[in-house]
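Service request form, structural biology core

Requester: graduate student, group of Dr. S.
Request type: structure prediction, single chain
Budget code: on file
Notes: please return the result as structure tokens.

Sequence provided:
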Amino acid sequence: MKILTLSAYYPPFSYGGYENRVRDVMDGLAARGHQVNVLTTQPDKTMQTEEIEFPYPVIRRLHGTRKMLGWAERLTSKESTNRLGVVLIFLRQIWRDIHDLRLIDHTIQGFKPDLIYLGHILPLTSSLLPFLSRISHPLVVDDGGKTLLLSFENHGLWYRFQSEFHPTSIALQVVKKAFSSLVSILSSDRLTRDWVWPDSINVFFNSQLNYRNFLSESVPINCSKVIHSGLDLQQFSFERKKDPLQPLSIIVPGRIEPSKGQLDAVKLSTLLRQGGVQHHLTIVGDRWRGDYASQLEEQVRQFDLDNYVSFFPKKGKWDLIELYHQSDICFFPSLHQTGFSRIPLEAMACGCVLLSYGNEGSDEIIMNGVNGFLFSPGAIEQVKETVMALENNKNLLSQVAYSARKTVEEHHSIPVYLDQIEAFLNGKN
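Core staff response, request fulfilled:
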């Protein structure tokens, strides 16, 4: 099977687990004999536009879009204070859309894929789905959050301009018509004037929550299925490197932002210290919100936790794996209620006992008290009691860790994951 993959980001550059999951799928499908081509953006200018270290072509020539809400309103508003600047931004984005659609079209014509695999498409041109509606290739969407739903709801800059900009003067009406005709010519009609939804979309979701949210909006699709993420268990090995004589070690992975709940982790450390529990808590992640990171550091200073809490910027996958291997417990206090995070799977695979609020899909894989522990968001007192119980019962700690690893091996290994995706791609829903 020939598969063309479109994704805004692709490793080694990624914002999170979404991009890594797409790469795992493409690597696995390529290893199984499928022909894979990837089109993506070049967010880091040090990257080559054509990657050669992959076992398949990865072309980083798409532009994508920049998040600037309200362009159409500002363009048509009399209150706009910088009309020229808005117009220039608008023209630049239209040019980028034309460039990207041309590249996608030429790639399709040259590669002749059997299907088009859509990963993280929201940051790509908003004209992508209307364009794909005009071709006959089946579309498969890997939906890791609200990507497709937001794409369905947001018609994009060009289509909003067409529908919302109603010039009152005859001169401006002529200008709009002439400009729209010019765009159609330059894009070879790839940028249509009407926003259209493809009728050939097949979607698999990485969590039951995303699936339910999507169905509630009645977005038209062909078929759908929930396929939880998988892991390469050769990379995420079940290995314990922690010195048993060292204090209890707790890892808290995730982007440093309020929705990830790291403030609750600091509160947990405070309660454990007050309870006389010797421990060390490591917060691992990139600082997406500097003000929130500063708040965490201030809390650490205020409660005199410098010897109990440390911050570790995530430098790469192997850094995180090493920290998993050196930790007893993974605390996952995420408040984010979309998607299926890879963090619980990674921690469980590496032998960490998972304590989670049950968000980001962790409640779909954890059997409470068997292969991990679930808590209501903010229930720090209960989390503390569980940590103390595990500290006092090392047999229970080992038993839960082993059960967690077994869960990942049986249900979330890469071979199991790829079997499900391959069946879905072949229409065996």
